[in-house]
């Protein structure tokens, strides 16, 4: 991308008009040795993938549908921190480019008010305990109008254009996102997770809210109180006991 001021994030771009999903294409590129920072972009995804096997609505030309390949030399248990880092980078880019008051819903949804504007899907390729690479899928509703969403989504999702009233310049947004991601990522690799934890908490939709969580092993209700030093969500139940939640589907209720 001409004018991109990064060392490696976004320096190699693989762009398509129409794909099923950018995720498997990024895996394919990574397996063939694509350099760290490679991004796979598409104008339209016919089978966009969301978390937990859900579909991701990805109509032509209205969004940013991209998958980023990174190859961090970190232990496997730390890889969920890359999702938190990505959410921070996206939230900071949206704030900077549009001024909109975005929030991060744990672990990886970006919200404006009570509506989702962006989702992140992180997929890991590892051998025994070594990370080969991560594919981080970012789906951002950029220029969609309300009429672009199917009726079952219209109540729960939004776009930057709907919220700001202005069309988004997608190429300059992607460039800025690559720059902010690289700054955060380089800092993380040198200095660790503390700054991401702070920035994530500053942008958090979740902290302070009553949540009902369905984890693999239990249903839990309580107040989200913060992240621990590793990025795991801490939830305080009614008895004051703190639970650490690594992965779950989260529902919210009024305080
Ligand atoms: C979520 O469920 O919130 C995650 C959505 C991730 C969507 C993006 S769009 C680009 C990349 N390609 C996909 O098929 N999914 C991710």
UniProtKB/TrEMBL annotation:
<protein>
    <recommendedName>
        <fullName>Bifunctional ligase/repressor BirA</fullName>
        <ecNumber>6.3.4.15</ecNumber>
    </recommendedName>
</protein>
<dbReference type="GO" id="GO:0003677">
    <property type="term" value="F:DNA binding"/>
</dbReference>
<dbReference type="GO" id="GO:0009249">
    <property type="term" value="P:protein lipoylation"/>
</dbReference>
<dbReference type="GO" id="GO:0016740">
    <property type="term" value="F:transferase activity"/>
</dbReference>
<comment type="similarity">
    <text>Belongs to the biotin--protein ligase family.</text>
</comment>
<dbReference type="GO" id="GO:0004077">
    <property type="term" value="F:biotin--[biotin carboxyl-carrier protein] ligase activity"/>
</dbReference>
<comment type="function">
    <text>Acts both as a biotin--[acetyl-CoA-carboxylase] ligase and a repressor.</text>
</comment>
<keyword id="KW-0678">Repressor</keyword>
<keyword id="KW-0067">ATP-binding</keyword>
<dbReference type="GO" id="GO:0006355">
    <property type="term" value="P:regulation of DNA-templated transcription"/>
</dbReference>
<keyword id="KW-0804">Transcription</keyword>
<keyword id="KW-0436">Ligase</keyword>
<feature type="binding site">
    <location>
        <position position="116"/>
    </location>
    <ligand>
        <name>biotin</name>
    </ligand>
</feature>
<dbReference type="GO" id="GO:0005524">
    <property type="term" value="F:ATP binding"/>
</dbReference>
<feature type="domain" description="BPL/LPL catalytic">
    <location>
        <begin position="1"/>
        <end position="189"/>
    </location>
</feature>
<feature type="binding site">
    <location>
        <position position="45"/>
    </location>
    <ligand>
        <name>biotin</name>
    </ligand>
</feature>
<keyword id="KW-0805">Transcription regulation</keyword>
<keyword id="KW-0547">Nucleotide-binding</keyword>
<keyword id="KW-0238">DNA-binding</keyword>
<keyword id="KW-0092">Biotin</keyword>
<dbReference type="GO" id="GO:0005737">
    <property type="term" value="C:cytoplasm"/>
</dbReference>
